[in-house]
Design a protein that fits this description.
121 residues; mainly alpha
């Protein structure tokens, strides 16, 4: 299954929330992202069918190996790009917003070049 930007965002959100609380529910994802319950339910269903997320009997969301790999890649991009933009003089809020947009479209080659340039390796 090919992931779109929104799917990557959901996976990244589950990863971020799981760093704060090991028990992540759909309602937590919706609140964090500002999305409605039906929107979250549909997205999580697609991610579950795609093999990126598992939903336990209690409703806890868990990233599969593939889901975690995608989430960590996107999260690393977000953190590095945000940090690079801040180092270049962009305010924190703008850097965070822009990094969130760039993280989904930047090529691996360009991202690796940014990491090397800013010594984030």
């Amino acid at each position: 299954m090919k992931l779109h930007e929104s799917g990557e965002m959901y996976l990244e959100t589950i990863l971020v929330l799981s760093k704060k609380n090991p028990y992540v529910r759909a309602i937590d994802v919706g609140e964090y992202m500002g999305f409605s319950k039906p929107s979250v339910s549909r997205a999580l269903s697609l991610l579950k069918n795609g093999g990126f997320v598992e939903v336990g009997e209690s409703g806890a969301l868990t990233l599969t190996g593939t889901g975690r790999e995608v989430a960590e890649k996107i999260y690393e991009r977000h953190c590095c790009l945000s940090k690079a933009l801040i180092e270049m003089g962009v305010d924190e809020k703008t850097a965070d917003t822009d990094a969130c947009k760039i993280e989904h479209v930047i090529s691996d080659k360009s991202f690796q070049a940014i990491k090397r340039h800013f010594h984030y390796d």
